[in-house]
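Retry 2 of 3 after timeout on previous attempt. Resubmitting structure tokens to design endpoint.
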């Protein structure tokens, strides 16, 4: 039971892969700079991009925006530009001799059964399963020892697999299910309500739902959140006032009760409502940005009970994670940057009445509940450590994990004696463990079927110093026996924002990269959450350059220690990580051979004018805040820092036409700037996926194609002419 505050985040596809133990390294064999890649770039002719005369004024400074017209996602001219850019990009990609080989390898490694953690609702045990190459995971279930059956198959939602299952929630008795779907990757959702036994649709779908959970009140109805439909394009128009509704089963959506967010005083960009497990309290969390929230509770056992304030400002992140009668259990970073668990009575829940239960430590806490216990997961240099507590705050035990890596939160319902968690790291496919809450014993529930020999790879944590002397951790993963000669193709992946922590996890595409002899490196940059609120804040607003400096220092560390060199180094990131790539490649174009910015926030002067972008101001600030903030943003904004006459790395910008979180206009404008000003023959291409969004719900078939293109582009521009797979 946790609030869901949407973040500008796009992660690596987390899944599993494998290796052929008899194969030698293949990707590290490069030719001279007079390679096929160099010859091909001489023949790359980009579509013409019209330059308009739009000019904006910021504190007396005139800023030209010649590609403003590309922000209109409904215009024929933009559509023609997208089509022309994709033709040039795919003509280039089709010419890479081993692109199809890479696609076949990705398909082969992707093709194994994947099963999620089980959960019980009513008489059934449910779980997510993919038989290998299905575009979307299928929800299966079984009753007792009976035969499993398909409950929901999202692959049947649309012919092309682009409609995905976004969330699923059951009524208290498990008899009714409500599930949200996303069409074409959009953040806008529809909610369907069905009889869980017969799967019969019970009422008309709820529409125009966005950034929402589904939280049931008993068996009567559920809470959800949405915005009023914006004027203009629903994919790019600003959405600013989130509202919480209660939907009673059987009534039309037009009659749903507005619970919070309908008045100017209640204006929040994000609002979530969730019900405690015993149905006693409704918890309402509101936020004006992606960091900090206020908090209210309503006692549902009393008729027409008011919303009672718990937190009245936005200076902390605070959630109710459980209750015992009127006693509330909250996790908060208020006066505790690394978070702690506190208790308070619902009759007087104000901050001054809070009592520490699990005090703050030097490591960042994530708290969960299940089986009548509390679980405290800590990040120790971005690696998991988990402790079990009872409800008096007494530590019961440390849970023994298989090794250094990432464990998912342990959680479940109060009465469940057996809970589940998964464990993974960059070279270990995810394994699901069961956990007995009384004995403390863990047992393998489902071992990954990935054909990957982890013993052939090494994943180690190193520490390096950033420009200002800050100590930054980084995980570096590669095949054992790799010669550190400066010639290893390397992907440096980063994020550095929104309190998001990059903890070790296994993925199929990264495993294939390792198979090829590549190195995969992930630093834990400031702006993330690995060391708590102070670490996050050190990478925000007027300190954002720290994030870029940390990333540049990571690249320099890899080069100095001969893992790679600038001729074999690719830099990659998505969303806020796409901004990271755009910033470092314009600040240090000499440092990287290849740049791979995905769904990036590239126009830092206008990001807050699209969809929910204004909510990112905690991390970025806005160009309207002050002259100082405007000049700071302009100083690193990727769109505004592409300079004529500079040789930029070979660049493959990736985005999608239905991305309504970081609208594709960011990437369009950045690609247009690069193409008009690139001084070298290195290609600057943009790949625009159709019927896809920010990343969630992307069909497996599209993911395989995307990674085949990304990896082949990367290796080709490092001088690799052939692969022996």
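Retry 2 succeeded. Sequence:
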């Amino acid at each position: 039971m946790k609030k869901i505050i949407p973040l500008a985040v796009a992660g690596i596809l987390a899944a599993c892969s494998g290796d052929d133990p008899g194969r030698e390294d293949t990707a590290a064999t490069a030719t001279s700079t007079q390679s096929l890649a160099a010859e091909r770039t001489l023949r790359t002719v980009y579509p013409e991009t019209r330059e308009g005369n739009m000019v904006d004024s910021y504190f007396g400074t005139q800023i030209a925006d010649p590609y403003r017209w590309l922000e209109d996602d409904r215009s024929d001219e933009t559509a023609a530009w997208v089509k022309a850019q994709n033709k040039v990009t795919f003509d280039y990609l089709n010419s890479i001799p081993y692109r199809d080989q890479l696609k076949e390898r990705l398909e082969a490694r992707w093709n194994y059964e994947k099963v999620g953690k089980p959960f019980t609702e009513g008489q059934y045990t449910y779980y997510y399963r993919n038989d290998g190459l299905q575009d979307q995971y299928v929800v299966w279930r079984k009753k007792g020892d009976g035969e499993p059956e398909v409950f929901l198959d999202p692959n049947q939602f649309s012919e092309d697999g682009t409609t995905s299952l976004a969330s699923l929630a059951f009524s208290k008795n498990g008899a009714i299910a409500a599930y949200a779907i996303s069409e074409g990757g959009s953040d806008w959702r529809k909610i369907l309500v069905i009889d869980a036994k017969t799967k019969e649709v019970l009422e008309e779908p709820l529409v125009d739902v966005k950034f929402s959970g589904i939280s049931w009140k008993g068996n009567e109805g559920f809470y959800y959140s949405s915005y009023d439909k914006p004027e203009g394009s629903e994919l790019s128009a600003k959405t600013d006032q989130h509202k919480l509704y209660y939907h009673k089963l059987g009534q039309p959506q037009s009659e749903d009760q507005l619970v919070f967010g309908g008045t100017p005083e209640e204006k929040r960009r994000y609002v979530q409502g969730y019900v405690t497990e015993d149905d006693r309290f409704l918890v309402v969390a509101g936020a004006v940005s992606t960091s900090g929230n206020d908090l209210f509770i309503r006692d549902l056992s009393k008729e027409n009970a008011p919303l009672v304030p718990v937190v009245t400002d936005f200076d902390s992140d605070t959630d109710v994670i459980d209750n015992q009668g009127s006693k509330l259990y909250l996790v908060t970073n208020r006066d505790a940057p690394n978070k702690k668990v506190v208790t308070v009575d619902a009759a007087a829940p104000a901050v001054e009445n809070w009592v520490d239960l699990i005090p703050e430590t030097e490591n960042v806490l994530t708290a969960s509940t299940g089986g009548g216990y509390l679980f405290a997961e800590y990040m120790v240099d971005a690696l998991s450590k988990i402790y079990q507590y009872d409800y008096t705050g007494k530590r019961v035990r440390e849970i023994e994990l298989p090794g250094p890596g990432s464990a998912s939160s342990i959680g479940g319902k109060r009465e469940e004696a057996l809970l589940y968690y998964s464990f993974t790291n960059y070279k270990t496919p995810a394994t699901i463990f069961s956990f007995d809450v009384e004995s403390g014993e863990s047992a393998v529930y489902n071992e990954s079927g990935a054909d990957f020999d982890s013993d052939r790879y090494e994943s180690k944590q190193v520490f390096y110093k950033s420009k200002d002397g800050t100590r930054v951790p980084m995980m570096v993963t590669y095949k054992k026996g790799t010669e550190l000669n400066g010639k290893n193709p390397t992907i440096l992946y980063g994020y550095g924002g929104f309190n998001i922590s990059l903890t070790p996890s296994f993925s199929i595409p990264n495993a294939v990269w390792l198979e090829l002899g590549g190195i995969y490196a992930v630093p834990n940059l400031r702006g993330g959450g690995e060391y708590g609120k102070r670490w996050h804040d050190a990478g925000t607003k007027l300190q954002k350059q720290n994030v870029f400096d940390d990333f540049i220092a990571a690249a320099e560390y890899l080069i100095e220690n001969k893992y790679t060199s600038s001729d074999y180094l690719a830099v990659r990131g998505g969303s806020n990580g796409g901004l990271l790539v755009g910033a470092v490649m314009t600040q240090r174009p000499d440092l990287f051979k290849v740049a791979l910015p995905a769904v990036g926030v590239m126009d830092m002067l206008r990001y807050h004018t699209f969809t929910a972008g204004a909510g990112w101001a905690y991390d970025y600030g806005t160009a309207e805040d002050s002259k100082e903030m405007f000049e700071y943003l302009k100083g690193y904004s990727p769109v505004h820092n592409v300079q004529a006459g500079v040789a930029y790395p070979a660049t493959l910008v990736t985005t999608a036409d239905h991305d309504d979180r970081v609208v594709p206009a960011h990437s369009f404008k950045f690609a247009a700037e690069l193409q008009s000003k690139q001084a070298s023959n290195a290609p600057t291409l943009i790949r625009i996926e159709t019927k896809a969004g920010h990343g969630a719900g992307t069909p497996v078939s599209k993911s395989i194609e995307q990674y085949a293109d990304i990896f082949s582009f990367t290796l080709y521009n490092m001088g690799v002419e052939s692969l022996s797979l």
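Attempt log closed. The chain is about 15% helix and 30% strand.
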